[in-house]
Amino acid sequence: MAKDKRFATFKETQRMNQIWLWILLGSIEIILIYKFTIDYLEKSIFQIIPIIIVTLTCVFIYSIKLGYVISNNNITISFFPFLSNSKKIEIKDIQKISIIKYKPLMEYGGWGLRYSINKTAYTIKGNKGIYLEMRDGKNLLIGTQQDIDFLYKKISEIMMDNENLIISK
């Protein structure tokens, strides 16, 4: 039985799982705990504050999650904890979808939720993205970890009924 292309979707979820980041945070936490246990004669409540701060930072970074779902009707973006609700973009409001490689630091000032005049970026890591050119002149970038050719093929399959939409890589 063939799958109905009208209801095809593609989704991706990303987390902050860069190994260098967790090694750095874990090392800081271990050093702070070691220092706290060694200085047992001079313990005070103030010595535990850095441990709590680093632990809460780890919990916060671990909770960050970027996800998107692409269907032939809309693209839904969730970026916890930065977006309180998912952002839904109707396909009819998009002029062009490009699968691109970009320079995060040069073009957007880094990763995360980035705003500037007429463009917004939702990224966690890497340098690949889905670039949406909206009919109202605004642009939006969604970071991705997918292969550019694979993602182009998937989006082209999902959007095959949308003749007015330009898809490029």
Number of helices: 4
Q: Could you tell me the number of beta strands? A: 10
How would you write the strand order of the largest sheet?
6-7-9-8-5-10
Strand content: 25-35%
CATH structural class of the largest domain: Mainly Beta
Number of domains: 2
Structural class: alpha+beta
Gyration radius over CA: 21 Å
Shape: elongated
Q: What are the main properties of this structure?
A:
six-stranded mixed beta sheet
Structure overview:
The chain is of the alpha+beta class and 169 residues long. The protein has two domains: 5-14 and 64-168, PH-domain like; 17-63. The protein is built from four helices and ten strands. The strands form two sheets. Strands 6-7-9-8-5-10 form a six-stranded mixed sheet, covered by helices on one side. α1 runs antiparallel to α2. The model has no long low-confidence stretch (mean pLDDT 88).
SSE diagram, text form:
Elements: E1 9-15, H1 19-38, H2 45-63, E2 65-71, E3 74-80, E4 87-90, E5 94-101, H3 104-108, E6 112-116, E7 119-123, E8 128-134, E9 139-144, H4 148-158, E10 166-168
Parallel strand pairs: 5-10, 7-9
Antiparallel strand pairs: 1-2, 2-3, 3-4, 5-8, 6-7, 8-9
Helix pairs in contact: 1-2
Provide a compact summary of the structure.
Helices cover 33% and strands 35% of the residues. The protein is an alpha+beta fold. The protein has two domains: 5-14 and 64-168, PH-domain like; 17-63.
